[in-house]
Design goal:
0% strand
Length: 98
Amino acid sequence: MAEDQNRTFQDKFMLRFPEGMRDRIRQAADENGRSMNAEIIHRLEQTFAAPETEATTERTQSAREVAMELAEELAKLPQFIELARGLDRIRKEEKDES
């Protein structure tokens, strides 16, 4: 038991927050259903995990490229719809003439 307490005390770290930060942490912790300590630990873990791999960056870049290509193709859609409507009118006229 004493060893567990010693480990706990060794892991403690006193920290001074800039003005207003404690309130922001408290609000975020409340919104996320966590203690302030758990909120701080969660955010630190996210920060250290973020630059995890180069593959993540590559996947993000690939997704952006695909999204841009899709947006370009979607921008052409009104032209294709108008073309299809024109073809339908021509077919209807040809059908009416026969």
